[in-house]
Design goal:
66% of the residues lie in helices and 9% in strands. By secondary structure, it is mostly helical. The strands form two sheets. The protein has a three-stranded antiparallel β-sheet with strand order 1-2-3. A three-stranded antiparallel β-sheet has the order 4-5-6, covered by helices on one side.
Length: 201
């Protein structure tokens, strides 16, 4: 009886609890299994070299950021494949951790773990319909992650030209948590808008 009562008390918060658990598990699973050096020379997963996609994305992000920053500043130039620098010597290096792939992975996990209200009381076609909506919503979320990642790195790069001491705050706090706020917002849209429509049919 106590367990049933406790379960009933937590039932309204089930989605949020699953969100928090998924976020933590996905985040630490990434940290524990993905290993890369600060220079971006090598990235491994369980000891398997998977540098290629990260190198490709790091170069792509650097090119995109350089183009965006160049629209606003004529004092910027690119050094090699990853470094964006200003005439005053201030610059930033875009490594494997700047690709946005981690956030895309976490977003996928968050959407995959969204459950129907009561799975056993729904017909299988409705459950399949929810999975169908996950299959288009996850790529849409990846596009949002991609766009936000480019925008955040471009914003950081623009802001540090004359304020290099802002880098730590912008990179490790402000834009990091804004990124996760965006993921939460997308998750809320799926849980509160898309799932009810699917399960109401």
């Amino acid at each position: 009886m106590k367990f049933r009562s406790l379960k009933q008390q937590f039932e309204p918060y089930k989605d949020v609890i699953i969100f928090v658990i998924t976020l933590l598990v996905a985040n630490y699973a990434w940290k524990w299994t993905m290993v890369g050096d600060e220079n971006g020379d090598a990235v491994t997963w369980f000891g398997i070299d998977i540098t290629a996609p990260f190198e490709f994305m790091a170069c792509h992000v650097a090119d995109a950021v350089y183009w965006i920053v160049g629209l606003f500043r004529d004092t910027v130039y690119k050094v090699g494949d990853h470094v964006i620098r200003y005439d005053n010597g201030v610059g930033t290096s875009i490594i494997w951790g700047c690709t946005g792939l981690k956030q895309s992975f976490i977003f996928m996990c968050l959407i995959l773990t969204v459950l129907p209200y009561k799975t056993l009381n729904h017909k299988s076609e409705i459950i399949n319909s929810l999975w169908f909506h996950k299959l288009w919503f996850i790529p849409l979320g990846w596009l949002c992650c991609y766009a936000f990642n480019i925008a955040r790195i471009a914003a950081i790069t623009l802001l540090i030209e004359f304020h290099p001491d802002w880098f730590h705050f912008l990179h490790d706090y402000l834009f990091k948590y804004l990124f996760y706020a965006m993921l939460f917002g997308l998750w809320v849209i799926f849980v509160e808008k898309i799932r009810p429509r699917v399960l109401s049919h």
